[in-house]
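Aggregate trends can hide what the representation actually does to any particular protein. The sequence in question and its structure tokens are set out directly beneath this paragraph.
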Amino acid sequence: MKAKLFFFSLLTVGFLAGCVNLFENPHFTVEESGLNWVVIRYYNYQKKPITRVNLRLDGNGIVSVKEGTSALVANSFAANINDATWNDIRETRIMRPREEMVSLFQMLVDNNLFEERTKSDAAVTNEAIFVFANIQNKTCGSGDDNIFASDPELAEHLKTVLQMFYHPHQKSRKR
């Protein structure tokens, strides 16, 4: 009886303290909300300087795509203004139906976006992909962990979503 009471007390304290519910299903039904968002960052290491793409999908239908070699693509607060690639950034904004965003978010949830991943020391690849999301008040983020190393199947799904909106532009030539 004391063990049950202790376990119940522990769960109650954890819940009240805002801890993650261990019994929460990482596969859930996505509902339409302007508060849902997913950010996918992609790096191509095959070219020097490194090509970067930052895709942001918002539940209200706004899709933002940043591309280029500038550090500003992945980090809006980058400060090295003397970097040779500082001005190499292009941004495109697209409006999509909210229902399409729900479908994309659902596809990512169904393909383990919110599953717990373990850090992997897999071989270095020529590309990296990272994801951060807030869907239905559930959050996840890969941090510094390349999804290609920890979950190659999810990485391919993320890359497919990226390719739906990212179409590489040719750099304009200076005259």
